[in-house]
Amino acid sequence: MAEEPVSAVQLLRSQKVKLIEILSADADFVLQHADSRCLLSCRSYQQVKACHVPSEKTTELLDHIIQRGPEAAEGLIRLLKDEALQEAFPRLHFMKDQQVNTASSAHSSKVDALIFFSQPPDMADVVPSIGLVEDLAGPQHPEDSLVNHSEGQFFLNEAFKIIVDEVLNKGTDVQQKVCDWKEPEELAQLLDLELRAAGEPHHRLLERVRDVAKYSIKTSHPRFFNQQFAGVDYHSLAGRFLSEALNTNLYTYEAAPVFVLMENEVLRSLRLLIGWTEGDGIFCPGGSTSNMYAMNLARFQLFPEVKSQGLCGLPRLAIFTSSQSHYSVKKGAGFLGIGTDNVILVKVDDGGCMIPEDLDEKIALVKSQGTVPFIVSCTAGTTVQGAFDPLDRIADVCEKHKLWMHVDGAWGASVLFSKQHRHLLKGIERANSVAWNPHKLLLAGLQCSALLLRDCTGLLKRCHVANATYLFQQDKFYDLDLDIGNKSLQCSRKVDCLKLWLMWKAVGSSGLEERVNKAFFNARYFVQELKKRKGFYLLHEPEFLNICFWFIPPSLRGKEGNPDYQEKLAKVAPAIKERMMKKGSMMVGYQPLENKVNFFRMVVLSPLVSQEDMDFCLDEIERLGNDM
Amino acid sequence: MAEEPVSAVQLLRSQKVKLIEILSADADFVLQHADSRCLLSCRSYQQVKACHVPSEKTTELLDHIIQRGPEAAEGLIRLLKDEALQEAFPRLHFMKDQQVNTASSAHSSKVDALIFFSQPPDMADVVPSIGLVEDLAGPQHPEDSLVNHSEGQFFLNEAFKIIVDEVLNKGTDVQQKVCDWKEPEELAQLLDLELRAAGEPHHRLLERVRDVAKYSIKTSHPRFFNQQFAGVDYHSLAGRFLSEALNTNLYTYEAAPVFVLMENEVLRSLRLLIGWTEGDGIFCPGGSTSNMYAMNLARFQLFPEVKSQGLCGLPRLAIFTSSQSHYSVKKGAGFLGIGTDNVILVKVDDGGCMIPEDLDEKIALVKSQGTVPFIVSCTAGTTVQGAFDPLDRIADVCEKHKLWMHVDGAWGASVLFSKQHRHLLKGIERANSVAWNPHKLLLAGLQCSALLLRDCTGLLKRCHVANATYLFQQDKFYDLDLDIGNKSLQCSRKVDCLKLWLMWKAVGSSGLEERVNKAFFNARYFVQELKKRKGFYLLHEPEFLNICFWFIPPSLRGKEGNPDYQEKLAKVAPAIKERMMKKGSMMVGYQPLENKVNFFRMVVLSPLVSQEDMDFCLDEIERLGNDM
C-alpha cells in the first residue's frame, strides 16, 4: 500500500504518543543527541533540559522541534533513524520505514506553518525573537526572510481576533461609543502615523490594528444613522474576506473564472428584479462611476464617433436631472467634457420628486437653443429626502424626445426586493440603465455598485473596449465573450460580486425582502414617535428611509415670526451634531436644502436598529439641544 | 427507549465528570493522543499541557475540545472509542455505545456554535454567552432573525479557517495547482450560482466558500507569473480585513478620522520618495482611473472653464504617450471626450522606451495643425516590456512646450524604494503627476493606487469639488480641509491606504526596498537561466521584471527562413498556455506586440518565488512544448 508521504512535522505529530513512550526510557540521551545536531534553539534546549520528569522532557523535546518547523523535524527523523538511537531504543525500528516529504523541496509544509500559526499569543513577543529570528539567521532560502507564511498567518489570526473584538463586538454594542472623537492633531499623535525605514515587531503592529479600530467610526453600530449605509452582514463580510485573500483581478475568464460567471449571474438576478430578462451590466467602483458610465453610454449611442474623435466639433450636449439629484451627475458632466453648466436641473415637488412637465418643457427649450439633450438621469431615492422620481411619467417624456433614460437607484433600487414597496419604482423597467448600490440598503458592504443595462447589443463593450493584446488575446482557447474586462474603464478591478452573492445565497431573496421591509417599518416607527414630541418638525412626510426634520430648541419655540429665527435655527443642528460627536453617543447627519436651513437627516436602514435605539436618538437630540 | 442522539458536544458535556475521573489516571497519555489527532489548537495544547494536576489537565482538555466545537468533540469521541484508549482505560467501555449527531449533518448545533464563539477568553467579557443562547432559544425580537451577531461571528470564524486553509495554505503550496481549470459550463454547474428566494444553511454556505476558493486562480501561488501582481503579504491582508470590517467611507474627517489622516501620511511618504516635500494626491480605484484624473487635471489647469462649459467650443486637444503605454490612456481620452484619435503615439526604441526626439517632433507637428497639446503621459515600467521612458529627457520636452508631464508609474514607481535601481526613474521629480500602484510590485493587495501631484494650490479639489451640502457642510466644527472627499470623483470611496500603511509599518521602507531588490535579483536569475537553454530567445534584454521571450519548439528550430515560420511560431505560446492552464501547473502570460508574434511575458515579482520555481517554469515550457 503506497501511502502519500507526509511531512516530517505531520509524521512526528502522528507518532507522538508512541515516541514519548519509547524515548522516555532515556530522555536525556535523546536530548543530547538532538542538541548536538542543533535541532533546538538555545532557549528551547534550556527549557527542555529543565524538565525533570522523563515523559515530560520527551514531550517538550518533540513539541519544541515540531514547533520549530520542517527542517528541525526532518533532522529529528534522521536522528531517530540513526544507528545510535536505533540501538538504544530497539522499538524505534518502525521509524526506519517512515518516508517524509522534505521541506527543502517544499514551500509546502503548510501544516508546519499552521502549527506555528496557532502558537499561544502571549508567546508572540518572545517566540519571534527566538524561533523566527534564528530561523532567519539559519541556512534558509533568502525568500523566507521576506514572506514567512507561518509567522504571517499567526499575525493574521491575532489581527482577526482583534477585529472581531473591537469592530464586531464592541463596535456594535450600544454600551460603547459610536465614535471616540479626537481632534486631528491629537489623533495623529495617538496613531503615530509616520512611516519609517525600520519595521516594527508584531506585538506593536497588533496594537496598531487595535488603535485603528478603536478610533474609527463604528459604522455597524446601531446608533450610526449618519450615512446611507450602516450595519453589518456576516455572510457578506465573509465574502469580503475571501475576495481580499484571493486577490483576484476581474478582467478575464482565465484570471477570474469563478467571478466572471458569478458577476454575470448576480447582474442577471438584479436585472430580473428590474423586469429585464436580457441585458448587460458591470460592477463599478461606486454609484458616481455608474452614473458616469451611463452618461458615456448614452452619448456613445447617439454619437458613436465621440469615442475616437471626441466632442470637438459636436454640438453642445445637455443632461437633465432633478435639482435634488446626486452631485455625481455634475461631477460626471465635468469629467466627461460636457460641462456642469450643461446639466439642466429640473424642478421638484415638495417631496423632492422630479416634475415631468418641467422636464418636458426644459428639454424643448434646450433643443430650441440648438443644444442636444441626450440623457435624463432620474433618481430613485434621493440623497437628502429619499424621494423617488416618477419613473413611468419620465419614461413617457424620454420616449417622446428619444432620450436615454437613466435611473440613479444607488440608494433606492434595493426596494425592488420588496413586493410591498416596489411600486415606488414603477416604470423602472422602461429605463435604459440603472445604477444600484447593494452596499447601501442591503448591507453588502462598501463597495458594491452595479450598473445595469437593458441593451443587448454589446454597447457597453463597444463603448469601452481598447485593444490590449497583452490581456485580451484574440487567440485564446475559450469563449472571448467571457473576458468581461473589456466592458470596464478600469483595468485592475476588484471582485465586488462575491459578497452580495454569498449574502443572497445565505438569506435568499426573501431574506433581503424582509430586510427592506424592516427598514420601512423602522422608519415609520421613528416618524410616528417624532410626531408625538414637542419641538420636532418634519420637512415633509417621508416616502422612504430618510427622515428629514428640524429640532426646535426651547428658546426658539413659538418665535417663528422673529426676523432672526431662521438664522438661529440654522445653528442648532450643527451645534447638536458637534456635541453628539464629542460625546460619541450616536451619529446623524444634517444639512441645508435650497431655502431650508440646516435640518437633521436621519437614515434608518440597518436591521440592527431597535425601537429603543430610535427612541434614544430622539431623547438624545432633546438632551443635547435642550439648553439652546 | 430510543433516545434522540445528542451532539458530540452535548455528550462530552454530560459525561464530563465521569470522563475526568477515568482519564485522570493518565492525563498525559490522553493529551498526547488528542494532540496527535490534531484535536486541539496549539494554543489550547500549550494551555492544557501546562496543567500539572492530572484532574485539572483532563478537565482543561475536555473544556478546550468542547469549546472548539462539534468537529473536535466528534474527534475526541472517536478517540475514546479507539482501541488504544479502551485498553488503557477499561472503564471507558461505556463510550462504545454512545451515538452522536455529526456536525456535518447539523447546522442545528447553534448551541455549540454559540458556546464556541463566546468562550475564547479574550471575548468572554464582551459576549454574555448565556444571554445570547437564551435570545436564540427564547421569544425573538424581529431583528434577531435578520442579523444575529453570535451566529454571524461563528460563520465568519469558520469561513476564516477555510480561507486560511484553501487560499493561504493550499493556495501557496507548489504541490497544489495554480488553477483548477474547468470549462465555463462545467464550472457554472459546480458552483450552482443561481440566486433563489430561500436562504441556505451555514454548512452549505461554508461549502460554497470552499468551492469559490478552490476553483479560483491562486494569485499568491509561487508559480503565478501571469500578471503584474502576485504573492501575499500578511500584514497588508490583515489591514484589508480590518478595512472591510470597519466599512468606512472615506470622504470626511467626521466619517473617517483615522483614514483621512492616514491617507495623507501615506501619500506624503510616497511623494517624498518621488522627491516632493509638498504636494497633493488621492487614492483611486486603479491605475486607469489615476491616469484619467491626471488628464482631467492637466486639461483643467490649461482651461479651467472646461469644468463648467465642457469641451464644446474649445480647440481640439491632444495627449502624447508612447506606442507601448497602457491602454487606459486611450480609454481615458474616449471617456473624457477628447477622443482616442487625439492620443498621439510616440515612437519607442527596441527596449520599448519613448524616444524624446520623436515626442518633440510630434508635438510641433500637432501644434502646427491647430491642435492644442496639453499632457504627455510617460510610462515608468510598461505593461509588456517593462520599459522606463527617459523621464529626464521627456521633462525637457515638456518644459519646452509647457505641457503637463504625467508619469504612469502604476507598475514601475515602486522601484523608487530601491537605492540600487531608482536611477531608472531619474527625472520623475520633474513630473506634475504620478500614478503609482503599490498593489503591484509591493504586494499591497488589490486595489491600492495612488495619484500623486506636485501641485500645492488645491488644483485637485478645485477640479473635482461639487457643492454637496449634505456631506460637505460648510459650518462644521473642524477644519474643512480634512474633508478630502471633495478631491475625488467618487462619492463612496473605499479605504485603500490602511493595508499599505500597516505593511509599511511592519517591514519599514527598508523591507520594501529589499522586496524590490529581490524581484530584480530573481528576474536576473531567470534571464540568466533562460539564456543557457536551447530554444528560448529574449525579445530584448529586460531592464525591469518583465521578461519577454519566445520558446521555439524543436520542429521550428533552424527554420527561421521558412515562409510560414512566423505564422507557426505565433501558435506556440497560445498552445502551451492552454496546456499549462488545463494542467494547472503554472500561469504565465503571452501576447503579440507590434510586428512581433506571440511571445511569453514572464513577470517575476513575488518574494515567494524561489529559483526552483523559476527553473520549473522553464522546464515546464519545455515539457509542454517539446512535441510541437
TrEMBL record, chains A, B:
UniProt entry tagged with the keyword Oxidoreductase: no
Pfam family, one: Pyridoxal_deC
SUPFAM superfamilies, A to Z: DEATH domain (SSF47986), PLP-dependent transferases (SSF53383)
UniProt GO MF annotations: pyridoxal phosphate binding; sulfinoalanine decarboxylase activity
Required co-factors: pyridoxal 5'-phosphate
Keywords: Decarboxylase, Lyase, Pyridoxal phosphate
Residues in CARD domain copies: 4-82
Residue positions where N6-(pyridoxal phosphate)lysine is found in the record: 440
GO BP annotations, alphabetical order: carboxylic acid metabolic process; heart development; regulation of apoptotic process; taurine biosynthetic process
One GO cellular component term: cytoplasm
Taxonomy, superkingdom: Eukaryota
UniProt similarity note: Belongs to the group II decarboxylase family.
PANTHER family: CYSTEINE SULFINIC ACID DECARBOXYLASE, GLUTAMATE DECARBOXYLASE-RELATED
Known partners and oligomeric status: Homodimer.
UniProt protein name: Cysteine sulfinic acid decarboxylase
Classification lineage: Eukaryota, Metazoa, Chordata, Craniata, Vertebrata
Gene: csad
